[in-house]
Amino acid sequence: MTVQISGGFDLTRICHDAQAVLPFDSEHAPQAVNAITPLFRIGNATLNEPAMTDKPRMPIRTLTVGRRPGLFLLVGLCSIGFFVADVATATCLREPIPGMLVLGIVTAQLTVICVWGTLVRGTFWIRLPWTLLLLVVSWCGLAWGITLEKGNTNPDALLGTAVTWMFGFITSFVPLKIAALCFRWQIIHDTDASPNAGRNFNYAIRDIMIGTLLLAMTMGIGRGMLTGEDINFTRALYASGLHEPELLFVISLYGVVSLLVKLPCIWISLGEKAEKIPSRIVVWVVYCFLLTIFEIGMLVTVLGNPGSDSGVIFTGMILSHQLMGAIMLAVCCTLRGLGYRLERSRSPQTDLQTELRSDSTAVAAHPESV
C-alpha cells in the first residue's frame, strides 16, 4: 500500500525507513499510516499555506495597541475614584445614607481587586502578590482617612480596619476563586485565538523575584503604618470587633448579600449577549432590591428594629447595594467595550482530543484527499 499526500510525502517509504531503527511490524503498517496521516495533513497545510498563519497577526497587534489607552484610562479613573472613597470613608460614616453609599463603593473596589486576581487570564501565583499589594494600598487610604478624621493616629482603629478589610477580602476572593476553578470561567480578550491561548504555567526567575519584592513591599507598608506597635491575634480581633457575635453576623450577612448582588453583574456585562444586557439589568435591579429586603428582614429578626432611624438605615442599605452593582456593571461593561469577555476555558486534554477527533473525521469523510 502506498499513500501519497499532496506535497510529496510518501508514508510507505517513511515507514520502511523507520524499520531500520524501530521495532516496526510490517503487518501493522496500515494502522500506522492511518494514525499518522492526520499529523502529516496538518503539517503539510502549514507548510503550503504560510500566508494563512501570518494574516491574523496584524489585526491582533493593531487591536492590542488600540485598547491600551482605554485600559490605562479605566485603571486610572478606578484608582483615583476608589482611593478618594477610601479616604472619605471615615468621614462619611457619621451619617447613615452617606456611610452606606461609601460602603457600597469600597465594597465594589474590593470586588474589582478580587475579580482581577481570580478571573483574569494569566498565572494566578504571579497575580496574587499584585492583588495583595492593591489590598494594602486601599487599606492605606482607609487608614489615612481615619487619621484625618480623628486628628491623630489611632493604632487600634487602623488595626481593626485592616482585619475587617482582610475579612471582606477573603469572603469575596475565596468564592470567586472556587467558582473560577470549578466552572473554569476566565476573562479573555477577543483577539485570543482560543479560550486556552496565552496560558503559561511556567515560572521564570524574574516572576519569582517580582513576586517576592511585591510581598516584601506589602508587608513593609503594612508594618510601617503600625510602627512600634505590639500586634497579636487577640488585639487584632478585639480591635476589629469581630469577637462580638452581633457585629460578626452583620458583616457576614452583608458580605454574602453583596456577593450575590455582584456575581450577576459580572455575568451580565461580560458573559451575556449584547442585545440581552439591557433587559438583564432591569431584572437585576429587581433581584437586588429583593435581596436587600431579605437582608433587612434577617437583621430585624436577629437584632431587632434599629429604632427611629430604621427608615434611613434601610434606605441606605438599598442604595448601597444598587450603587455597588452599578459600579461593577460600569467597570465590566467598559471592559467589554474594550474587547474583553467572560468565557469558560477548556482543559488541554479536551482540546487535544477534539483536534484529533476532527482530524480523523476529516480523513474518513474525504478519503480521496489521502
UniProtKB/TrEMBL annotation:
Coiled-coil blocks: none
Keyword terms of this UniProt record: Membrane, Transmembrane, Transmembrane helix
Organism domain of life: Bacteria
Ranges that cross the membrane: 71-91, 97-116, 128-146, 158-183, 204-227, 247-269, 281-300, 312-338
Keyword Nucleotide-binding: no
Annotated protein name in UniProt: Uncharacterized protein
Species of origin: Novipirellula caenicola
